[in-house]
Amino acid sequence: MNDTRKTAAIIGASRALGLGLATEYVHRGWDVIGTVRGSHRTGLHDLADASGGRLTIESLEMTEPEQISALRDRLARHTLDLLFVNAAITRGDVPISDVPTDMFTEVMITNALSPMRVVESLRSLVTPTGTIGVMSSSQGSIALNTRGGQDLYRASKSALNQLMRCYAARHAEDTRTLLLMDPGWVRTELGGPDADLSVEESIPGVVETIESHQGKRGLHFLDYEGQVVPW
Ligand SMILES: NC(=O)c1ccc[n+]([C@@H]2O[C@H](COP(=O)([O-])OP(=O)(O)OC[C@H]3O[C@@H](n4cnc5c(N)ncnc54)[C@H](OP(=O)(O)O)[C@@H]3O)[C@@H](O)[C@H]2O)c1
Hints:
CATH topology: Rossmann fold
CATH class: Alpha Beta
Order of helices and strands: EHEHEHEHEHEHE
Shape: globular
Strand order of the largest sheet: 3-2-1-4-5-6-7
CATH architecture: 3-Layer(aba) Sandwich
Number of strands: 7
Number of helices: 6
Helix content: 25-40%
Structural class: alpha/beta
CATH superfamily: NAD(P)-binding Rossmann-like Domain
Number of domains: 1
Bound molecules: NADP nicotinamide-adenine-dinucleotide phosphate
């Protein structure tokens, strides 16, 4: 292994923004560990084939705690410069009064609880000057919510932000940088076809913002242009 190369682990890298992140870090010369679910072939497999051995694919359904533990064991010999949890879901724009309990539970477990379980489980693999990032959204900002809509998705990202603040307070002496990232509104399955940005227009800014905050410590909620997002 080449010790001068940096390593990123990207959770949820099969397609869209996660695949874009993996692609950008491979192009920047990093070693990348990307996770997918299931055994079907994804865009990440094509990237791995073209990466000259820089990209390793791991399997993780992040709502299964035992799969997180197993991934932690498989990665035990790695030192990560970046751990980034990208994966999340939406279940459509349903007013909270119409959201079934199982939908509420599914979205909250996927978007808020599971990323924190991944962060807690894999944090010790991240180098002391490294970065732990989680994909949030401006829709998780309570201060910016003047129009409503996407109630459950918004609430799940607000919960994620709050849990990251709890994490940051609990690990106040930690030298690692903690980031909540807003990638902008991006044309993906989750973002929909009417979104402002392509993955290629969002991701370089996301990565530039991550890299410019390396070593800065503390928790930061930032967008893909490096701007602070209000809580
Ligand atoms: N697109 C936007 O406009 C936008 C805006 C703000 C924030 N974001 C955030 O950016 C991130 C990526 O969004 P996207 O637009 O790229 O979404 P997407 O196209 O729906 O892709 C979601 C990714 O998450 C993975 N995933 C979902 N649930 C998972 C689970 N339980 N375990 C493991 N992996 C799981 C998916 O894997 P599979 O392929 O196996 O389903 C896929 O790789 C999300 O956190 C999203 O909330 C997106």
